[in-house]
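notes to self, project folder thing:

trying the whole complex as one job this time. last attempt i did each chain seperately and stitching them together was a nightmare. two parts in total, labels are on each line so i dont mix them up again. if this works i'll redo the older ones the same way
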Amino acid sequence: MPRRMLCVHFPHLSADRARRDDLELAATAEQARPLVLTRRAGAAVIVERVCPRAQQRGVRSGMTLAQAQALAPNLCARPSAAHRDAALMRRLTHWALRFSPVVEVFTSDALLLDITGCAHLFGGEAPLARQVVGGLAQQGLHAKAAVADTPGAAYALATAGTDAIIVVPVGQTCAYLAPLPPSALRIEPHAVERLDMLGVRTIGDLLMLPRSTLPARFGAQLVRRLRQALGEAPEPLTPSEDEPLPVAQTAFETPVRDGQTIRFVLQRLLNDLYAQLERRDLALRGLQCVMTCEDRAPAVQTISLSHASRSWRHVSSLAVERVAQLDPTPGVCGLRLIACETTRWRGVQNHLFSSASPRSDEEIGCLVDRLINRLGEAAVVRAELVDDHQPERAFQYVPVAQGRLDARGAADADAPTRRPDQPPPGSSAQPRPLRLLPRPAPLKVIALLPDGPPTWVATANREYPIASACGPERIETGWWRGPDVQRDYFRLTTEHGGQLWVFRDCRSGRWYLHGVFG
Amino acid sequence: QQHRGGSTYRCPSGWSQLDAALGGGFACGALHELIAADPTAATLTIALRVASHAAQFLSTIQCSSPPDQQSRASASQSMSTAAPPLSAARGSWLLLVDADGDFYPPAAARLGVPLSRLLLIRTGRRAAEIQWVCEQALRCGAIAAVIAPAAHLDAYASRRLQLAAETGGGLGLLLRNEPAHGHTFAASRLRVEPASSPGARPAVRIVVLKVREGRPASPFVIDLADDAERLRFRWEKQQRPAHAG
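result (full assembly):
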């Protein structure tokens, strides 16, 4: 089966990556602005990469920024970051795994996929190439793709070919390569210059030269690349492997029962894990601690953080507290820490004098983590109003661990100045007590009229003479909801001044205390 | 508006008499005790009202730099024309410890408490846990106010919480039942009793037992319903331009 290679070339990788990363530039209004990436050379700022719009205006790499701004006044300039581009390429190899199991970062701006035998799954080579290019376009990356027999040919066509998608039929590599310039073969610049001086402008011309004279005049690499492109010499691929999760583990020679030793070893493993995360530019969201004991199944504790965090002190304090809850008495044989959930770390530089509060988000996230760590997820909740007439069902508790702690978004929803036209759900015109008993307490009542407000109520331990009453407020729920309620609520003011919320169940005629306005 | 009484910022409670008795309002970065003379005394209403004010105002002023370093000249400036802040602004989260499990959120929403920024901690009645939660929350800069029941709080514990409040810069509001004796390190101590007022409006009588940097006033009565009406009126007033337009 002939081998088929798909090469994807990103002509504007740096500019596209800068557009994606920078939220300002990603806004639709800013898409039309030309973008250049710059680097510092001494005191001057030199343009390194340009985006297509800037290229149209005449900006070229090597100009100073001032020159570029003279050509295109509304230019955006960002510092170039080669490591970010490399990280993007690594992520794209993971993305491209859906098309082929063998993906390699061929050069700093091209990916190579081995699609031997994969094409029929996508309906053919041309549809596959179109899907690749389309998927990348959705992510905001300009790409060109070419399918050929050899990696060299595919790269040459993707880089120097005119069309966005080129598919070379089997065996016709020579014909397709002929019109391309020799620089597309990845040869050294001095060889390219010499070929140009000699008037060898295309690969077709190069192929007409006698092969045996080429090494002496232009170097052995030229011939090797030529042979690789034509398929006469092999070019092996080194597929990039999926990076495993950061793990730090240790095994003890004899079972350990001492808590202090375990804490010491745990701290060392944590430091090792943090070093791995920092090397890979990751932030931690979930950590798993597995303690293997002899004669017992391994004990696992999972810590999930509300905020992707790189503050190692905070994570260490949470981890130490959790591991302390595991029982080491049977004897611990090994300890293993797995960073099960990680996210890309985007370090944000705070302005020294700004009043924006990204730190406040982090602080509240750390506090919530500490509270959940000690009290459990069900103990740290937020209340949400529910549209229901029955008072005890007019709200629900949502564990904070499930939602996101968004400082800004949440504030806008509830600020009194931005309340929508209708009153918020669950609120009513009548006042409600701040303390609602989980279960209404039965009352002994003296009332003038059987349906009317009482003048004296008594709970199990206290009596309250009543000065005045507001009501009744009839609360009924529909019969279709299951056990329904029919209650007449009264707001009673006692002679001392306190206020109670009592109701009379219309079915049974009994009186209950439901809440206290306190 | 903010008053600069002495050397700390003070948060208004919404009742002018109470603010005057406390020397301008509830001092930020400090602990305050509200003692309920009766189970029906409205300490939680007062605490929630103060906390919701704190959440609004503390997020707009800077508190991390000690106010002593700032000049007295800026005392008369209103907050909207303040100089650029020297450090990141305080967050505006509230934390309430619900030990008995009888907190009713819809009533709090009516009082104007932003529920999406209220963290509810449902612990049991164990004093050690409540104290730990309060200390962690008060130390966190993002929390504007902490409301917690403090049934078994001794002087040592109140000292720790006061120090935590000074570190974090928020308000600590502790609710206790009578009898409360012994020395406390809180910045102020108020005794709240239910009071009868004409027209069945909820009212309380407040006795200021201890206040730092203020004049202990004679007991006074405040009308609790007042602020709710005013809040609702303000909300309605803001809606009217939208309708007219």
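what i see at first glance: Chain A touches chain B through 71 residues (CB under 8 Å).
need to look closer tmrw
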